[in-house]
Design brief:
alpha/beta, TIM Barrel, 5-stranded parallel β-sheet, 9 helices, globular
């Protein structure tokens, strides 16, 4: 037991880089309960045990649809600027306590706003302000990737793209941490080529383009930003190469993260 505890502590304290962490897929259970009560939300669960079963994944899921459905409950509690700011901060706090030194956090404004009156600017500012708060408290560097759900309307994804680009180019505090752009959602029944104009606009604005499964069919290349150290992480995911670029933090790193 003591050896197991020592090993866990040793692994937790190792410096790490974490990629592909979804904002709405990494919410503390206590936060879900707290925000649901505060905003009087119906999460369709009669008990804490039932709610845990809906929000906590403890084994591999059958397919992508099942994975996406698990996000639906946590999506409901991201219903205000303050809620998003809190969840963003807690995401980074948990990552830091697990030894993460470099974090890639991703979020989908169109998905978060679905069925709500919250605007894209409130969502984006909630994320950026949550990051600003964590930077004041923890020695961790983070880059944020904005993602478009493939199954949402093209018009809605155009608006999200415009808003992400607007903040990327703005003087908003830590806007440079908004550093990447990607697609998400159903990869089987949608064509990545349909999103090529939006991906190209994001690339031209200075957002790094992450290459996920099936996205490699684009003729676009990941952006190479002058003056910044681009740190890439490559994983083999079911035979497809996923390349995630953390571009915004490069200028702030003074020494290597790994031994």
């Amino acid at each position: 037991m003591i050896k197991s505890y020592i090993f866990i502590v040793f692994v937790r304290e190792l410096p790490k880089a974490e990629i592909h962490r979804h904002l709405d897929g990494s919410v503390r259970f206590e936060t879900i309960v707290d925000l649901a009560k505060y905003h009087n939300l119906d999460l369709d669960a009669k008990s804490d045990e039932e709610l845990k079963a809906k929000t906590k994944i403890t084994e591999p899921m059958s397919d992508l649809t099942a994975v996406l459905n698990s996000f639906r409950t946590t999506q409901k509690i991201l219903c205000s600027y303050e809620a998003i700011k809190r969840v963003t901060f807690e995401n980074v706090e948990v990552a830091y306590r697990d030894g993460v030194k470099l974090l890639e956090l991703r979020f989908a404004p169109a998905f978060i706003s679905e069925g709500k009156s919250i605007r894209n600017d409130e969502i984006i500012e909630g994320v950026l302000d949550g990051l600003s708060r964590e930077m004041e408290k923890y020695p961790i560097h983070a880059g944020v990737i904005g993602i478009l759900p493939r199954t949402f309307s093209f018009e809605k994804n155009v608006q999200v793209t415009d808003d992400l680009i607007h903040y990327r180019k703005s003087a908003y505090k830590n806007a440079d941490m908004l550093c990447g752009f990607d697609l998400a959602d159903d990869e089987i029944n949608t064509k990545p080529e349909d999103f090529a104009p939006l991906v190209e606009r994001a690339r031209q604005s200075g957002l790094g383009i992450t290459r996920s499964t099936r996205l490699d069919r684009f003729s676009l290349k990941p952006v190479q930003q002058s003056g910044k150290q681009i740190r890439g992480s490559i994983l083999q995911v079911r035979g497809a190469v996923t390349l995630s670029l953390l571009t915004a933090v490069g200028d702030k790193l003074q020494k290597p993260l790994f031994f």
